[in-house]
Amino acid sequence: DEVAKLLELKAQLSCENGEIQKFTLKTAKGTRDFSPQQMAIRENVFTKIIGVFKRHGAETIDTPIFELKEVLTGKYGEDSKLIYDLKDQGGEILSLRYDLTVPFARYLAMNKITNIKRYHIAKVYRRDNPSITRGRYREFYQCDFDIAGAYDPMIPDAECVRVVQEILESLDIGPFLIKLNHRLLLDGMFAACGVPQDKFRSICSAVDKLDKSPWDEVRKEMVSEKHLAEDVADKIGQYVQMNGKLELVEKLLSDTNLTKIPAAVEGLEAMKLLLDYCDLYGVKDKVIFDLSLARGLDYYTGVIYEAVLLGDTKIEDPANSVGSIAGGGRYDNLVGMFDAKHKQVPCVGVSIGIERIFAVIEAKLLSGPDKVRTTEIEVYVASAQKNLINERMKICKELWDEGIKAEQSYKKNPKLLAQLQHCEEYGIPLAIVLGESEIQKGIVKLRNVLTRNEVEVPRTKLVDEIRKHLKTSHTNGSS
Amino acid sequence: DEVAKLLELKAQLSCENGEIQKFTLKTAKGTRDFSPQQMAIRENVFTKIIGVFKRHGAETIDTPIFELKEVLTGKYGEDSKLIYDLKDQGGEILSLRYDLTVPFARYLAMNKITNIKRYHIAKVYRRDNPSITRGRYREFYQCDFDIAGAYDPMIPDAECVRVVQEILESLDIGPFLIKLNHRLLLDGMFAACGVPQDKFRSICSAVDKLDKSPWDEVRKEMVSEKHLAEDVADKIGQYVQMNGKLELVEKLLSDTNLTKIPAAVEGLEAMKLLLDYCDLYGVKDKVIFDLSLARGLDYYTGVIYEAVLLGDTKIEDPANSVGSIAGGGRYDNLVGMFDAKHKQVPCVGVSIGIERIFAVIEAKLLSGPDKVRTTEIEVYVASAQKNLINERMKICKELWDEGIKAEQSYKKNPKLLAQLQHCEEYGIPLAIVLGESEIQKGIVKLRNVLTRNEVEVPRTKLVDEIRKHLKTSHTNGSS
Q1: How far apart are CA B413 and CA B398, in angstroms?
Q2: ipTM
Q3: CA distance A243 to A321
Q4: Fold agreement between A36-367 and A379-475
């Protein structure tokens, strides 16, 4: 401990003496900074998503970035090893949050909240093996929408589907499909096929891999690794390769092998109701009932969702997906895990795969012809001659007072060319160009940066003229 | 390690079996959740502040919540002990960020950025002794605006003052004053008074306490604890009790005791220029040159700022402040600490004391007569009779399709009274009330929740009518 203190002191002194720290300048493994361009894109995406959440009346909450370690314990199965712990510096044992769902459940139980519709967009942390190419980071955003409360079947569940559809439509990232399934149906199907009860979860995880692996491989895992009888695996295989709409529900409801299991019937009836509601909510074309959808997390108890982006070819083939971009489901027992009296608060929700969406949009925008603007400056206050800093400042003040977004060079005597280049680089639509003779005449030059057109405007009418010009360029869509 | 694994497994199993975890349900010490009401207030404040940053052309960036521990080492002096470290789970040694300034400097050096104007609003972490009553938490937001780049004296520095002024005005939290001083002048003053060079920093920290303690106590600290000669302390005392405007700069510029120290002259000339620029930027009335302003952080090299909220009595007395709500200054050497070739990037910036501002505004709003709305729902879709869920869903779909913010009960057959109470509780301005007979006639009832007025509207004109009503209630300011 003494040594540590001395080392710290030494490091401190060496810095104060202007010595340079000798270590690689980098962000922590699996994390990254976001540039102004990336942030501008993110802000735009967040605004659209939050717009949808607000259209559906969601409130938002926030929770701390770390929780008591005990809060997270036993919620993530095998993935618990990926949780970041804080160092024990005396006091409580803390961990960084792994998702937003467990803190949400903790929040509900702690505050005895029995119904809420909330969204939460925030960073979560996983000590996963980062894969930059696949866009997997150790620090990343989650973007959750959940409805908690004891309500009637499938009404909140259907709204989650509608919310996903509105978000993906508004982001304009190409065709997508929302896969639907039900945990009760999965369990019922496993029972009908003869899977032993204690193997339900592990067989379920195997099924979950069907979006990446072909059936043959999944079957091999079931038989060789998980010691399932071959004929049982084959029966599962027949079911999990089915997908469709209401007609598939009807078909399965006449499958006596399945309907002898009450859970299966319950799951199928729920699917039927959900599909009806999806129809009423206008999302019929975007949903597909898919028996291969399993989802890894243990806490789901009812409907499960997963939205996938489709490639350019046939939309109707769900195997033709380029990846999951949203997922969720019903989890009726999670909040009760935090309540001393086991009091349950039923919940259903979806998590938007915002990082994947960012990656898609970023790639599209940064390779496109248009520059991403990182500021919203409307007017740049430039000077064509020396010693006009005071005059520039007065005009900036006037514009700021009027709420106009304006800036100027921080140099006393900047070159005109450098000032105009700044305007072009940042996509600023208008520039005021100040000169001695104009000042004496009580006018300023207002320049359209794109067309390079200049008009002379009386100083007293400057603000009005700027407003007029901005309005025109907005309606022309050129800003 | 084996034992740990077994314990984890046990915890997991007990959860899966529906057993309840036995620990106090709480957030980590010094942290807290934010309710929808608090979040609504925060969002409103952030929107105003970001509006000012954008009016000044600031871009935004983001950095990870943790950094390599080495990045933070030697930047915070004595406060380093308050840094949260992450547990060593193999790999890099990491710490949670302590402020946004050091990560910003690291970002500039790492990306070789030599000029940028950026804002950053994000959470930082300090293992301080939390004081809930004084609003001091271990997780809290910082809200920084900084201008990096080699520019001409005081031009970016003056804009920081203007930004603080615009923010505090826009938040409408009462009278305030922005204190200004200069590190070179402080150093020059210490030299002029005969403080030994090696005591500059510790005497500076003592001066920093003058906003909370009277001069007598600060003097005692200087003499008894820091072993400064009594006559030297008395000389300091004469200076640090001065404050004023340009006339004070002029007076000090004629103080030969001070002007024999080049640093003091340089600091005074800088203050003069800054006050001139503040005048041009229209913030003359809000600034005061205050020789007692010192600020604790070691890395300041030029101008330093601190904004204080004033009490209700005399505005001109800076001692009459209810607390610091913004602070900052120039730090020209911090970025160079991260550069292998000592390359400096001069910076100046301010940090808005957002948590203190939240506390002030929250207290005002939550004790006021108006409810803080936590959602933006414009229309609630209610039904007066049973079995109208499908009809409600169709109308919701129609409204969402048109971008109208709408919601309905998640119960199949909710009571009308409960539905209308929900509208009042959440401040929803309009409700659609569905009934069998109206549906048959092709109309719906549109109800103004506040006035309880109801009008019958043809289904086909519903959206138009809603838009019209919302417009009226907006212009009446009643929403």
Answers
A1: 21
A2: 0.90
A3: 14
A4: no
Topology (CATH level 3) of domain B36-367: BirA Bifunctional Protein; domain 2 (3.30.930)
Q: So what's the pLDDT on residue B22?
A: 62
Distance from CA of A142 to the nearest CA of B (A): 15
User: How far is residue A146's CA from residue A57's CA, in Å, rounded to a whole number?
Assistant: 11
* pLDDT score at B73: 87
* pLDDT confidence band for A393 (50 / 70 / 90): very high
Which DSSP string do the residues of B363-389 spell out, in sequence order?
HHHHHSSSPPP-----EEEEESSSS-H
CATH class for domain A379-475?
Answer: alpha beta
Phi, psi of B266 (to 5 degrees): -60, -45
Indicate yes or no: CB of B21 within 8 angstroms of CB of A118: no
DSSP 8-class letter at A136: B
Parse chain B into domains and list their residue ranges: 36-367, 379-475
Say how far residue A19 (Cα) sits from the centre of its chain.
Answer: 42
**In the numeric block, which tokens belong to residue B132?**
């809930």
Alpha-helical (H) ranges within B56-154 are 69-72, 101-110
Tokens 């506040």 map to which residue?
A: B450
**For all residues of chain A together, what is the average pLDDT?**
91
Buried b (16+ CB within 10 A) or exposed e, A370-396: eebebbbbbbbbbbeeeebbebbbbbb
Strand partners, A142: A122
Residue B64 to residue A337, Cβ atoms within 8 A:
no
Q: Is the pLDDT of residue B448 over 90?
A: yes
Spatial separation of the C-alpha atoms in residues A148 and B478, rounded to whole Å: 30
**Angstrom distance (rounded) from CA B462 to CA B446:** 9
Q: What is the pLDDT of residues B251-307, one digit of tens each?
A: 999 999 999 999 999 999 999 999 999 999 999 999 999 999 998 767 899 999 999
Q: Which of A32, A66, A155 sits opposite B28 (nearest CB)?
A: A66
Judged by CB atoms closer than 8 Å, whether chains meet at B139 and A54 is answered as no
Q: Report DSSP state, residue A451.
A: T
Q: Answer yes or no: do A342 and B20 touch at CB < 8 A.
A: yes
Note whether B74 contacts A16, CB cutoff 8 Å. Answer: yes
Give the model's pLDDT for residue A319: 45
State residue A79's pLDDT score. 82
Of B111, B375, B412, the CB nearest to A152: B412
- Å between B237 CA and nearest CA of chain A: 28
